[in-house]
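Ticket #268: bound-state structure for adenosine-5'-diphosphate.
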Amino acid sequence: MSELVIEGLRASVSGKEILRGIDLVVRSGEVHAVMGPNGSGKSTLSHVLLGRPGYVVTGGRVTLDGVDLLELPTWRRAQAGLFLGMQYPIEVPGVSLEDALGESLRARGRDASAVRDLVREEAARVGFDERFLARPLNVDLSGGERKRNETVQLGVLRPRFAVLDEIDSGLDVDALRAVARRVEAATTEIDLGVLAITHYTRLLGVLRADRTHVLSRGRIVVSGGPELAGELERTGYAGWAEEETATGDGARAGGGPAGGGSLAEPLP
Ligand code: ADP
Ligand code: MG
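RESOLUTION: The complex was predicted; output attached.
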């Protein structure tokens, strides 16, 4: 059983504070959905967790089984068991998926001799066309193909925790189901813990969230069970955003739309 613990995390980009105190604990096998309006800091959270340059941590801690991740370079965080599925996976000309994954496995001290078969197996599970496997990483792939590619990488690398930033964006209905099934399977096959950033309950229909959190202006303003995602899809985030404006600095527990009070947890 592993534990990813985020405590009071604050971070700035270009001198502007974007994350204003995030607390979140994800355990092995758990799925936590993170929702929230555009620009609320969801992708910033994913970048900060993996240590993207330019994102400055100004407070708080992130540990994986007690190991301080914020002290480590990105590759060491990956080695410690953290994986990021990017919202906008980048093209890496000249590097094949197989080479990248082979190196990643070796960096983790794992046997990379079967990487070719593993990649093919994982590609089949999410319907990622074999002819893309020979291409340089993400080069000329569509948005949806890139998301499947991210999922293939997740399947091969078998991390302990995956941060998936809108893994469902750009996927057609069949691909979405396949990707969601693959990640859901990983939560039992390898006890993967997941932080799934998403706007849509269609992902969560298959990838079952244990907890749902709403991020607004850099803070988690409400947390609840899986039913909270459905409520948000009906009501939108307006209630939370309004409350933030009304109180000036973050929402209070017990407020929000659609009688969400029973779902709310107290905030400090
Ligand atoms: P979300 O993923 O929730 O839509 P982001 O984390 O991408 O939101 O962005 C949160 C805020 O931080 C936005 O106001 C965005 O413009 C700002 N931001 C994110 N990255 C940068 C950056 N590299 N430089 C300047 N501002 C940034
Ligand atoms: Mg984003």
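RESOLUTION NOTES: Confidence is low (pLDDT under 50) at residues 246-268.
TICKET STATUS: resolved
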